[in-house]
Design a protein that fits this description.
Length: 681
């Protein structure tokens, strides 16, 4: 029967001041499993637990009897369990959203069905899921889920399940996830979008995907504000993938989900024939307004300073620079409260209660710190972020559910932006944990007119070692080793420092990293963390020969890039530099047999580089080794270059010099063979 024509404008207005549409429902085949389906897949990897033989989805728009628009999505899946560990795929969770505010998105899950199929005596035996074993439960906030476990599942079993998702929000379409943690033999997703809705459709990941688009007739009309009626069509998009490999994690990747094969839909606008202004969907200003109503945040973001008396006792001069005030207040805060190890965008307990028990999450500490900064006359605001370990925020539709925590942003007298997070007890500005140095941060209130801000490149991150010493003719090396750390390199050094309750043991371990024995030690923390120690080392010596590792590394450093190939980009926490400067006064009459030529190597576009120099000066031997990573994310196509560069860095760090006596104190010559030794890479 031919579907009736409907007027779109009136019912669209019910959701977002727009019209109404109708789309024909299409049934999907389900439940036909024959004997041949049990032998379709032959894994090449014996560790594969299970496989998706088929994933299919179909999304379309329809009109309810009340005239409102609904988005319907029907999904069906077929898997085969291959190993005992694969039986976990019989446990299914279906997450959905039920907003509580008026006009919020409301989703429903229906038409759940599932069965297990086994071959018994050459016959296919079906074990259906009993509906009484389908459970609904609250997850968190506005998210709920249905859970069920499909019965009678063992290695060899075929599993099928299906469900329908219905949403009242016609401007939001769920992502289609092509790639799973197990192989997918065939995946197809079809979506019919009425032309009145304009979406940006993007693919993520490196999975090949066939994308087809065509226009199909839709049995509805649109009535614009001027009364004009026009026939409309649907845009039908079909996405097909075959032989999709599983998503596997790799080292130096914050979140593999960023690279999962996915198709995303983001509303761009509404057809101008509706007579409505372009619709941009949600925005971050709206998210910040929503956050204000969230009690664990809104109740405390402008709280009164609970440490105002202690702060007043500091008697900070009015003309003290804002950055210095901020550091003093940071120290004061951590005299009264410490981080409990948790990150959040809100706090369940009031910051005052956290202060009483001297412990709270980073949100509680940050709320108190913001109040202290305001009392000191420093402009500041929360900067909302999504932890890198939870996935990238860039390009996502603005949503409160995408945010995981916030850091503190402040302005100095010249309008420069500084950031910090009170989970760090060390008082340094523009220092954040690496997983919070994100590409996109959202200022709760604009900082100097900025709502969006990048935190990816804040601060400098260096380790600088300087050694100056003397070598005696019996192979004894004595000197002073000075180390300076900034940024994230500071955090690594301080974590090593605080991991040892005995400071002497810490210094001993730091010296042992370079094969040294320490004699005196001192440290300081200002704009950088600095360590200085007097050290000694017995060099390998025999007869008239002394062996010297000029970069003090007689143990091979680890190369993090062992795999031959890589799928994902290499994600460093930040750009960084590690350098070593050394100067050695040689014993009288000794010379290096030979010195390597100066070396400099870099990857494509100088994303990373390594330099090495050993130079004989009249008063001694000067050496320099430097590794620089100038880009925190290096695409996978340059992985081979990066791996080769790291090998060269390690080889250079292992340089071994042979010092030979060429003349004694009495001037008698000593023969020299033209040889040189280098350590293995």
């Amino acid at each position: 029967m031919k579907a009736p024509r409907v007027c779109i404008l009136a019912s669209l207005l019910l959701f977002l001041c727009g019209g109404s549409l109708f789309a024909q429902h299409k049934e999907m085949k389900y439940g036909k499993v024959g004997k041949k389906e049990f032998s379709l897949y032959h894994p090449t990897d014996s560790t594969t637990d299970a496989v998706f033989l088929n994933k299919e989805g179909y999304t379309y728009y329809r009109q309810e009897n009340d005239g409102r628009i609904r988005v319907e999505s029907e999904f069906k899946f077929r898997l085969q369990v291959l190993r005992p560990e694969g039986t976990r795929y019989a446990d299914v969770d279906i997450l959905y959203y039920r907003g509580e505010r008026m006009g919020a998105t409301q989703e429903q899950i229906s038409a759940i069905g599932a069965s297990a199929y086994n071959l018994v005596d050459g016959k296919v035996v079906e074990t259906p899921l009993d509906r009484k074993y389908i459970f609904e439960e609250q997850v968190t906030g506005n998210y709920r889920r249905y859970r069920f476990s499909i019965p009678d599942v063992k290695p060899g079993t075929l599993i099928e399940y299906k469900y329908r998702r219905t949403s009242n929000n016609p401007i939001h379409l769920e992502d289609w996830q092509v790639q799973e943690d197990i192989p997918v033999c065939f995946a197809r997703y079809q979506v019919d979008i009425p032309e009145v809705f304009q979406f940006n459709i993007t693919g993520k990941g490196s999975i090949p995907m066939q994308r087809d688009h065509k226009r199909i007739n839709s049995e509805f009309i649109m009535q614009a504000y001027d009364g004009h009626l026009s026939q409309m069509q649907n845009n039908r998009y079909t996405f097909t993938s075959t032989d999709v490999p599983p998503l596997k994690d790799e080292p130096l990747v914050w979140c593999a989900e960023n690279y999962r094969g996915t198709v995303s839909f983001e509303i761009r606008g509404l057809d101008p024939r509706l007579g409505l202004s372009a619709f941009q969907g949600s925005n971050w200003e709206g998210v910040c307004a929503e956050l204000k109503d969230f009690s664990g945040f809104g109740n405390y973001v402008n709280m009164r300073n609970p440490l105002r008396d202690e702060q007043a006792a500091l008697a900070l001069p009015a003309d003290m620079p804002a950055t210095e005030k901020a550091l003093r207040l940071h120290r004061l805060l951590h005299e009264h409260i410490h981080w409990d190890g948790h990150y959040s965008i809100a706090t369940d307990d009031s910051p005052r209660k956290c202060l009483d028990r001297q412990q709270g999450n980073n949100a509680a500490l940050n709320f108190i710190y913001l109040a202290m900064l305001r009392d000191a006359g420093i402009r500041c605001t929360p900067i909302l972020v999504r932890d890198k370990r939870a996935g990238d925020l860039t390009g996502s539709e603005p949503s409160l559910s995408r945010l995981t925590t916030f850091v503190v942003g402040l302005l100095d007298e010249q309008g420069a932006v500084y950031c910090t997070d009170c989970s760090l007890e060390w008082p340094m500005l523009n220092l954040l944990p690496g997983h919070l140095m994100v590409n996109l941060g959202i200022c709760y209130t604009p900082l100097d007119g900025q709502r969006l801000i990048s935190l990816a490149d804040i601060g400098t991150h260096t380790t600088s070692l300087m050694f100056e010493g003397s070598i005696t003719d019996d192979g004894s090396l004595t000197g002073k080793l000075s180390t300076s750390y900034t940024g994230l390199e500071t955090l690594d050094a301080l974590r090593r420092r605080t991991a040892e309750p005995d400071s002497v043991e810490h210094v001993k371990k730091e010296a042992e990293r370079y094969g040294l024995t320490f004699h005196t030690y001192k440290e300081s923390v200002t704009d950088a963390y600095r360590e200085q120690m007097d050290v000694s080392k017995d060099l390998r010596a025999g007869g008239s020969i002394i062996y010297l590792y000029p970069f003090l590394l007689d143990q091979l450093p680890a190369n993090p890039f062992l795999a031959e190939k890589r799928t994902f980009p290499v994600e460093f926490p930040a750009k960084f530099t590690r350098r070593f400067f050394g100067f050695y006064r040689l014993p009288e009459g000794y010379e290096p047999e030979s010195l390597p030529k100066p070396m400099r190597m870099h990857t494509h576009d100088r994303m990373a580089s390594v330099s090495c120099l050993l130079d004989r000066r009249p008063d001694g031997l000067q050496v320099m080794l430097e590794l620089k990573v100038n880009q925190s994310i290096i695409p996978a196509r340059y992985y081979g270059e990066l791996r080769e560069l790291w090998d060269v860095f390690i080889e250079s760090a292992q340089t071994l010099l042979t010092l030979k006596r060429t003349g004694g104190k009495d001037g008698a010559p000593v023969s020299v063979s033209d040889t040189a030794a280098r350590g293995d890479s």
